[in-house]
Amino acid sequence: MSVADVAIVGAGVVGCAMARRFTLEGAKVVLLDRGSDLLSGASKGNSAILHTGFDAPPGSIELSCMQAGYAEYLSIRESFNLPLLETGAMVVAWSEAERNALDGIEAQAKTNGVDTVRRLTAAEIRAREPELSMRALEALLVPGEHVIDPWSPFLGYLRQAAAHGAEISFATEVISGNFDGEVWTLQTTKGVRRAHTVINCAGLYGDRLDARLLGSASFQIKPRKGQFVVFDKAAAKLLKTIILPVPSERTKGVVLTRTAFGNVLVGPTAEEQDDRERATVEEKALRGLLAKAEEMVPALADVDVTAVYAGLRPATEEKAYRIAVHANRNWITVGGIRSTGLTASLGIAQHIFKLYRDLGNEHTAIVNPQTPRVPNLAENRPRDWQSAGYGEIVCHCEMVTLREIEQALSGPLPAGDFGGLRRRTRCGMGRCQGFYCNAQLAALTEGCFASPLAVGDAA
Amino acid sequence: MSAPFDVRSADVLIIGAGPAGLSAATHLKRLGVGNVMVVEREPIAGGIPRHCGHPPFGMREFGLVLTGPAYARRLVDRAVKAGVELQLKCSVVSIDYADDLIVTCASNRGPLTIVAKRVIVATGVRERPRSARLISGERPLGILNTGALQEYVYLQHLVPFRRPVIVGTELVSLSSLLTCRKIGAKPVAMIESRDRPTVRRVSMALPRLLGVPVRYGTRIADIKGRPRVEAVTLRLPDGSLEDVACDGVVFTGSFRPESALARSAGLEIDGGTGGPVIDQFARTSEPRIFAAGNVLHPVETAGWSWREGRRVGAFVAQDLDGKLSKPEHAIKLTPGTGIRYVVPQRLVPGGGGFDHLQLRAACEVSGVLVAHSRGRAIRQQPLTSGPERRILAPLAAFSEADADVIIGVDDRPSTTIRSGSACV
Questions:
Q1: B324, B346, B378 — which closes off a domain?
Q2: Which residues on chain A are in Cβ contact (under 8 Å) with B186?
Q3: What is the DSSP letter of B141?
Q4: Is the same domain home to B122 and B138?
Q5: How are beta strands B416-417 and B365-373 bridged, if at all?
Q6: Which domain holds residue B341?
Q7: Are residues B190 and B149 in the same domain?
Q8: What pTM value is reported for the model?
Q9: Is residue B148 assigned to a domain?
Q10: DSSP string for residues in B252-309
Q11: Which of A188, A201, A331, A392 meets the CB 3.0–4.6 Å disulfide criterion with A10?
């Protein structure tokens, strides 16, 4: 059996960026994930913001990874056909206490090298965001905070890795393994895999994977649930800038932001739980988010809710990323990558590759790698329905075409489950939530998924 | 969008080929209007009845008892025979205002621009999805609205689940039961948050006949299962919780107009209906744009929408001849106590137009429906009703009003607004 250079466990935002980086650097990569598609764990539920790192801990690995990830995203996004909404963000002080905290946040931003920040008076806030509540006292404007598509980049990264030889295996859970001093032999639910080095990007199961294969874990995952509410696209005209709260010690707090798809999003909550799988939405929390959103932008009270969702972030006992190199065991753990992971993923991959190279691993980087363009889902760039020959529109709310759905179900890295199809195309994610299209999607996806939409044929 | 594939013109463009849109178009042709075009985003015309595979449809229109699909085909045949031009798989993406109305559509052949003198928005309704109801729980496969269930069964011939829980007791909830029966699915329960059914009690013979237990005062507290629904937790009237094994949940009714286009076209939207505000001639806040059918009033029957479409077709024909009263000096009709919405919401002087004001109660009401203007009761009628029931009041009763009118249920002691549903 062939031995890969690295086995990456976990196809979340970190694992996908990692697979791309290692492949481009010339390593032979195998990427294993227990789910049936990429981003099916912690990564599927985030707030889709590309952060500058203005409020990250100064001098931290997290900050350097965020800033490297931010820069790399900006440099590669056009070639992948990825969107960027240059919204900027405002950290809004709603009380005198919060107002007093702005000085510290501004100083921290400048320490972190984010020197484009500036203060806005109440009048300047209103000029910029006329729909924002009059209760806003003062704000710190962070022009570099942007909104991105939270899913398509990683499809692009994986397609690039696959195009250059990376092997990607879903429904593949790592059960056990042993290291003979040179090679890891991993027992998985899809047979044996061998690799010289293992990179643990297993997100919500990062500690368990370390415990299973190394015998112990140096951290413990404490899942932190985040619930979100998505407003109808009618809300998009009410808000331009990302509205951030003055953060607390524990969490960045509830954010109000536009999405790349033309909606407005409010969330997340921050709720500790033990369960690593069950991410429920709860009416009380959703009502709380709605109330918070309406407090910030009162006109949202008249806008319908399109969607609600909940995700689990892989928090640990500490705020910091839990990156550990087990040099004598050819094992690198990339754990505890919380909400900043979306921004930091490309930077984390750069950082981990350096650590890997420092262990004495050498490869020859690929010259002129090909960059597959991903289908655009953002509303500020041309969508598929705008060019002829799309067949028909299947999802009317999100204007998803038959051509897009067929492409997402075929070709490299086809959707592995309905969630994956939704993230690739946005089908069924609009205001009707499948009233019009769910049955047609069931028909179009027959035979495609291990968990099909329909359970049988009608007589 | 790139250069238009095609530019067309129409005297009247109707958006949506459901019962209201098709009947408006057919009637316009019969009245001699030249170029009448209907654009429909689906591949098949007919609207909701297309996938409502059981009777009764068509009694008012054809004097026959038809299934939904047969009814839809007849409506389409009639329209085509009358000379209506039907554009299928054509999605309106914007309406812009110039000397005429500029309607931009997406189509497989490329962008299509239609320059129209008048537009009728007949985009219909849909049921409120689980998300907008803020129902707690996981988000597995097997959670649908009735419309999607019907499409699985009658259009795609697929089975989405075998033992669902049905949420709601509206007319459409009964359609859910019939649709389940068609595929041999056996609903494990029908639940209703109020203490009584929304349809008339006599209709609740259907679940009894089908052996489906109906549980009042009951809500969903949790949905469990990955990747498919495995159970729901019910919150019972006494506050206790009970798990019920099932493999699907159908959220029925609680209709909302499909009014995204009306909103994006800048039409004034009514908070009560969620659809465009109209006057008694079905004119919206942009007087060259009319609206008909369920986009105006969640929710009425297909037959009602069909009849309304005819009326609106006639108003548009009159308008093209310059014979409608000007959309000026309108008074506002607004819902008062116990009333969720009124349609039309505007009345221009001079009478004419619809015969009736359409209303919906916000809750169970019993008493007197009173219309007040300038502090004076200008109309009273006895009223006993509940949510989602048709309530009509003759519009002629308001023709003398020269100031805004509030229509509510009188709160004298003789009037009771019963508990069992929140009433505002």
A1: B324
A2: none
A3: B
A4: no
A5: antiparallel
A6: 332-410
A7: yes
A8: 0.96
A9: yes
A10: ---EEE--HHHHHTT--B-TTTSSB---TT-B-SSTTEEE-GGGSSS---HHHHHHHH
A11: A201
Query: Scanning the structure block, which residue is given the tokens 């791309």?
Result: A20
Q: In B, residues 113-172, which contact A (CB 8 Å cutoff)?
A: 126-127, 129-132, 134-139, 141, 144-145, 147-149, 151-153, 155-162
Calculate mean pLDDT across residues A262-291: 97
Of A277, A389, A435, the CB nearest to B126: A435
Which residue, of B324, B350, B372, is where some domain finishes? B324
In angstroms, rounded to a whole number, what is the distance separating the alpha carbons of residues B69 and A133?
Answer: 50
What does pLDDT average to over chain B? 95
Q: Is residue B141 domain-shared with residue B106, that is, in the same domain?
A: no
Cβ of B159 within 8 Å of Cβ of A399? The answer is no
A190 within 8 A of A169, measured Cβ to Cβ: yes
Q: What percent of chain B has pLDDT over 90?
A: 93
Residue B420 within any structural domain of the chain? no
What is the mean predicted confidence (pLDDT) over A383-387? 97
Rounded to a whole number, what is the distance in Å from the CA of B268 to chain A's nearest CA?
Answer: 13
B24 with B102, same domain: the answer is yes
B424 within domain boundaries: no
Into how many domains does chain B fold? 3
Question: What would the pLDDT profile of B302-340 be if each residue is shown by its tens digit?
Answer: 999 999 999 999 999 999 999 999 999 999 999 999 999
- Residue B424: the pLDDT is 43
Give ipTM to 2 decimals: 0.97
User: CA of A243, closest CA in chain B: separation in Å?
Assistant: 23
Identify residue B147 by its one-letter amino acid code: G
Q: Return the number of CB contacts < 8 Å for A and B.
A: 147
Which chain A residues are Cβ-neighbours of B267 within 8 angstroms? none
Specify whether B249 is located in the same domain as B157.
yes
What rounded mean pLDDT belongs to chain A?
97
In chain A, helix, strand, coil percent, each to 5? 35, 20, 45
Whether residue B196 sits in one domain with residue B153: yes
Residues B220-244 have pLDDT tens digits of: 999 999 999 999 999 999 999 999 9
- What CA dihedral angle connects A437, A441, A443 and A444, to 10 degrees? 130
Q: Is residue B269 part of a domain?
A: yes
